[in-house]
Structure formats: C-alpha cells, structure tokens
C-alpha cells in the first residue's frame, strides 16, 4: 500500500471505536533540518503498531513529539480526544503515555526493584500511591517481565539485555494506556527475541496499546497488526506487515532503486529478509558496542 489508510486493516476495525491517538500533519524543524514533515496517522485502542524506517527517518523524533520531549513546529497530536501538544512529559506520563528509550539509562545507584518503584510513583497511579504501594506495584511488574531473580541487583550491574527489560518494567509500572517501545530488541539474539515477542503479546493482552520502533523485521512481521514507514521525515507507506514489506517505495528506501525495480519485475515476492539484512549491515558498527544479549 502507498501512503494512506490500509483497506485490509480498516475492514477489521470497529468503526465505532475512536482512535486512542491521532497525529495530524506533525512537523518538526530543527533549524534548517526537517526532522519530520506532515505525518498523519491514527493509533487505535489495543493495537500493536510498528513504526519502521531507515536510520535517520524521523522515528524517534516522532516518539519525542508524542511524549512531550519535543514540541511540533506544526500539526496536532491528540490523545483520548484532547490535544497534548506542549504538555510536559511528566504530565503525559500521569495521563497514560509511557515510553522506553533506545539508549537505556536506569538509575544506576538503585536496585532493579527501586528503579521500577520510581515508575510506579510517577505514572498514572502515582499521585495516589504510598511508597509501600509503589514497591508492591514494582514487585508485580518485575514478576510479570521475569526479572524476579534480579530484583535486588544494582541496575548498573545488569547486562544490556536485562537493562532493556528493566526499561520495559519501569514503563509498565507507570500503568500506561499507550506504550512506546524504542528498539527494545537491540542486543538480543535468537530465542531472546522470541521471548521478547511473547512479552509484547502478554503486554498487549492486558489491553495496553503498543507502538514499536524496531529494526528486527521478525518482530514487526510477528507481532504488529499495522506498520507505518518513515523515510527522510515523511510517511511513505502504511499497511499490514506483508503489504509494507512488499511496497516498492519501502524497498527503495531500504535497498535502493535497482532492487525496487527488480521487485517490480516480479522477484522477490517480499523484501522483509533483505530489508533486515540491509539494516544489520548498516548497524554492524553500532551493534558491536552492545554486550551480548542473555535473556529477555
């Protein structure tokens, strides 16, 4: 599919259910650089939406606009029918929006349990929680993400894979309605990715709406119902995973014009594997800096 709403996705949606989040013409300029430009799409309750694109496409900038870390130069973003443009991140956190960060930064001098309790104190239910209640919530989330054995460990002693899981736990402790996951699979291998996918499905089963920024195409194809693709700050495609990975504009963005022309000629039927291979090649240097993943 090209830019616009995908008919196959639209047919499977209850027309009476309004979007949880609406983005209209979202634009962010930094000096002479247009980081994102004219982006529009909706996110519906209970959905798992993938947000993909080559490095520098504007994915994290868009997440920053949604979470209040940055303010749009132009455009509107509404959450549950109300504009959230200009609201501080802590206000949005209390309102039901939580995120993880691509580069994990836990409170290094605190334990895993204490880190997650911070999320419980500053999320949607934080205003009414005592410290003891926050720790009880932390224990519940820690067990849910299978970090129980590390409960009392110092956050700075964890390997990268477990720090990423801690990022997810901190965000879940905020009791979000909308959870934005920024490359939580980076550093994971093999069965660790499968375990992470199961965790995402379990989070979704709790009724939490999820947006995933991810370069692991196995995850995008395996858990996402719909995918939005960005390139050079613009939305170039939207549809099911199968539709976007077969879209010539997406193939060209990742693999170049020649590959896209070959695809138009009839081979291959899908470019998901080739796209992921290209992503891995582009990120080899950065990925080598991560510690080996152990278990997600």
Question: What do you see in this structure?
Answer:
The protein is α/β, with parallel strands linked by helices and 296 residues long. It has 13 helices and ten strands. It has helices at residues 7-11, 59-67, 89-95, 112-122, 131-144, 160-172, 191-205, 217-223, 241-245, 248-255, 257-264, 272-282, 284-287, and strands at 21-30, 33-43, 48-52, 74-79, 82-83, 97-99, 178-182, 209-213, 226-231, 234-239. The chain has a six-stranded mixed beta sheet, with helices on both faces. A four-stranded antiparallel beta sheet has the order 2-1-4-5, covered by helices on one side. A hairpin with a 2-residue loop joins strand 4 (74-79) and strand 5 (82-83). Helix 4 (112-122) runs parallel beside helix 6 (160-172) and helix 5 (131-144) packs across helix 6 (160-172). The two termini are 33 Å apart.
């Amino acid at each position: 599919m090209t830019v616009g709403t995908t008919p196959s996705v639209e047919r499977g949606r209850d027309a009476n259910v309004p979007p949880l989040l609406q983005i209209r013409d979202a634009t962010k300029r930094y000096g002479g650089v247009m980081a994102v430009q004219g982006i529009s799409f909706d996110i519906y309750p209970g959905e798992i939406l993938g947000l993909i694109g080559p490095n520098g496409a504007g994915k994290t900038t868009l997440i920053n606009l949604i979470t209040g870390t940055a303010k749009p130069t132009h455009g509107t973003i509404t959450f549950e029918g109300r504009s959230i443009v200009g609201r501080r991140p802590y206000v949005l956190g209390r309102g039901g929006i939580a995120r993880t960060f691509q580069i994990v930064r836990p409170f290094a001098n605190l334990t895993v349990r204490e880190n997650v309790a911070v999320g419980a104190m500053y999320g949607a239910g934080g205003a009414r929680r005592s410290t003891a209640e926050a720790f009880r919530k932390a224990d519940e989330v820690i067990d849910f993400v299978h970090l129980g054995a590390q409960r009392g460990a110092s956050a700075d002693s964890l390997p990268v894979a477990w720090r990423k899981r801690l990022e997810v736990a901190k965000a879940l402790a905020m009791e979000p309605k909308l959870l934005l996951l920024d490359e939580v699979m980076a550093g994971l291998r093999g069965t660790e990715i499968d375990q992470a996918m199961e965790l995402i499905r379990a989070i979704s089963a709790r009724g939490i709406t999820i947006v995933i920024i991810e370069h692991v195409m196995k995850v995008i194809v395996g858990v996402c119902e719909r995918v939005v693709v960005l390139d050079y700050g613009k939305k170039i495609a939207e549809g099911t995973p199968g539709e976007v990975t077969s879209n010539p504009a997406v193939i060209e963005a990742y693999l170049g014009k020649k590959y896209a022309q070959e695809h138009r000629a009839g081979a291959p039927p899908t470019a998901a594997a080739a796209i992921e291979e290209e992503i891995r090649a582009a990120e080899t240097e950065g990925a080598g800096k991560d510690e080996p993943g152990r278990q997600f």
